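Hi C.,

You asked whether I'd gotten around to modeling the 317-residue construct. I have! Everything is below, sequence then structure, no commentary in between.
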Amino acid sequence: MASAVQVPFNTSPAYSGTFIPQLWSGKLNAKFYATTVFGEIANTNYEGEIKSLGDNITINNIPSITINDYVVGQNLNYEVPAPSKVDLTIDKAKYFGVNVSDVLDYQAKPNLMGMFTDDASKQMAIAIDTGVLLGVFNQGAAANKGATAGAKSASYNLGTDNAPLTLTAANTVALFTALSSTLDEQNVPDTDRFIVIDPATRNWLMQSPLAQAYVTGDDKSILRNGKIGMIDRFTIYVSNLLPTAAAGFDFSGVVQGGSAKRRALIAGHKTAITFASQITKTESLQNPNDFGSLVRGLNVFGYKVIKPESLCLALVA
């Protein structure tokens, strides 16, 4: 008598692998920072102090010391530096939840942890970057934005809600140098400067004279190798998540914004924004309604502009 043929379950999509909370937390954090813009442009000096949602981190600012003229024989004056602090609140959180059936886990071949951590980190980065870029893009000093930017000269037009700059291949590099000069007038260090641009601005930049290798001094044109690198001390990042606004709306989509369609570009120094994020919980629960597990993770985070003089905004069309 012939034995019965076992027909496998139809498992689509198919998953397999193992779930170890500590490993997932570490892999998610590492992959998250590999894909997020804020892993590059913000400092994360206070991240290790996060334990849970609602934590408050006190950041002590370095006080400014007064420099005095000296006259031989005079009595010296000694000041007590006035301390100042900024509070970073971990007041935001996002989570993911995945239902993993034992049948899918048993029959399929891809590594569950690797596959899910890749996608969870990418989706988490998109969600958090979108919110954080919207939250900080206009938090720079008043002298670092608008039609009269420049703390000393007030001579740089970085665009406004009603009159954004119209970018072309001819003037995109000039905007970069204006942003750089605006930071110079705030005595911002030359190193660790960044600029985040959108794909449309990158398009104009790749058509600018910088596409010619002899202008940049590189051995290959940026048009040929696709690597923009640095321009006027800025490390350039391209993001499709920068805020945009339609005519008549603000950047949050509320009516009564600027009268022109515009896009936000941000530039600054890595000390301008502090950003802290932690995967605080990863766990597996038995699915009460099926054979398998419910896998979930919680990411808590917070951000703040702590040096507004080191952050610039350009509004372009």
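If it helps when you're writing up: DSSP finds eight helices and eleven strands in the chain.

Thanks,
B.
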